[in-house]
Amino acid sequence: MYHPAQSLSSPRRGKHKVFIGMAPGVGKTYRMLEEGQQLKREGFDVVIGLLETHGRAETAEKADGLEQVPLKPMAWQGRSLMEMDTQGILDRRPQLVLVDELAHTNVPGSLREKRYQDVEKILEAGIDLYSTINIQHLESLNDLVHKISGVVVRERVPDRLLDEADEVVVVDVTPETLQERLQAGKIYAPVKIDLALQNFFKRQNLVALRELALREVADNIEENGRESNTQNYCNIQERILVCVSTYPSSIQLLRRGARIASQMNGRFYVLFVAHPHQFLSKAEALHIETCKRLCEEFEGEFLRVDSESVVAAILDTATQHHITQIVLGETRRSRWQLLFQGSIIQRLMRGLPQVDLHIIATDLAVDSLQR
């Protein structure tokens, strides 16, 4: 278990631990409180900055004995609403503060618009912090979550919060367990249960969101591991790069690469290398746009790079995006070109010894590799 530092006067930035889950009700807040209680028993100064129990008795009981920094009343549209008192937390200066629902939007008129901005202020003061969030609140996943669930998530946080966190914990349960909790009234009020089961909490939605949460955290761990060991790091997730050109056969090549990426459950990239001194015809430009559209349909990332050397562009792109497999067509270079300029495949193999190359048959050749 991660322990906060015991020094109260250290100028360091506070450490941030994020508890993330696929949906409401997985137990993020309960787990955060559980760890907070354990640290309190070990002698650490732990307080609650903001807690949302949503009427869940077990969650409220788990907070017993933990000091709650008084909330701050905010007047809005004739009502008094309670918000986290960030200044009160800074004045109290605990070793660890627990903050629920990181993506929350503060009441209009608050000093900061979003709760995550308050959290950053607390961390800057050197106070350690635990927070909770659901996967659908990450900015970059907003469109994908809408595609999965049909729900537009209004409250979002920048992905950097997860990237910059010192520790990220996935609080995971099976979709069946989550649906059971919902039906037992442990997530929403009884009047909302049937509607939730028919919409956001449908099994296929939960399966997809669960995979999304697990993959996001796995990617986060992988990126951190790579940064700390750039020389010998072994990629966990496959990353497939397809090299396309202006020739019609590129469409077939792209589809072949997409199938490989799907079978390996890997990330999918498509690369087009444009010569800076050669202009595309209208038909060629439309073809490249078609490749881009197909790439996006396959949920891949389309990369266009200007370079006089296709091989150099592939090498740079593969290194930058940590590619594990490259799909390209068999070159139609003449024997004289191979004799004087060398085999492109051999050059890629020498430059990317840890990357697997898939060379597709001649009728699917990517003729732009002739440069």
Characteristics of this structure?
371 residues, alpha/beta, Rossmann fold, 2 domains, six-stranded parallel beta sheet, five-stranded parallel beta sheet, 14 helices, 13 strands, 41% helix, disordered C terminus
Task: Tell me what the structure shows.
With 371 residues, the chain is α/β, with parallel strands linked by helices. It contains 14 helices and 13 strands. It is elongated and about 70 Å long. The C terminus is likely disordered.
Secondary-structure map:
Elements: E1 16-21, H1 28-41, E2 46-50, H2 57-62, E3 67-68, E4 72-76, E5 79-83, H3 86-92, E6 96-99, H4 115-124, E7 128-134, H5 142-149, H6 160-164, E8 167-170, H7 175-183, H8 190-198, H9 203-228, E9 239-244, H10 249-263, E10 267-274, H11 282-297, E11 301-306, H12 310-320, E12 325-329, H13 335-341, H14 344-351, E13 356-360
Parallel strand pairs: 1-7, 1-8, 2-3, 2-6, 6-7, 9-10, 9-12, 10-11, 12-13
Antiparallel strand pairs: 4-5
Helix pairs in contact: 10-11
State the assembly state of the protein chains.
Answer: single chain
Outline: elongated
CATH topology of the largest domain: Rossmann fold
Strand content: 15-25%
Return Rg in Å.
Answer: 26 Å
Architecture of the largest domain, CATH level 2?
3-Layer(aba) Sandwich
- Helix/strand class: alpha/beta
The ordered string of helix (H) and strand (E) elements is EHEHEEEHEHEHHEHHHEHEHEHEHHE
End-to-end gap: 55 Å
| Poorly predicted runs | 334-342, 364-371
CATH class of the largest domain: Alpha Beta
How many H/I helices? 14
Counted up, domains total: 2
Which strand order does the major sheet show? 3-2-6-7-1-8
Number of strands: 13
Instruction: Indicate the mean pLDDT.
Output: 85
Proportion in helices: 40-55%
Task: Output the CATH homologous superfamily of the largest domain.
Answer: P-loop containing nucleotide triphosphate hydrolases
Biggest sheet overview: 6 strands, parallel
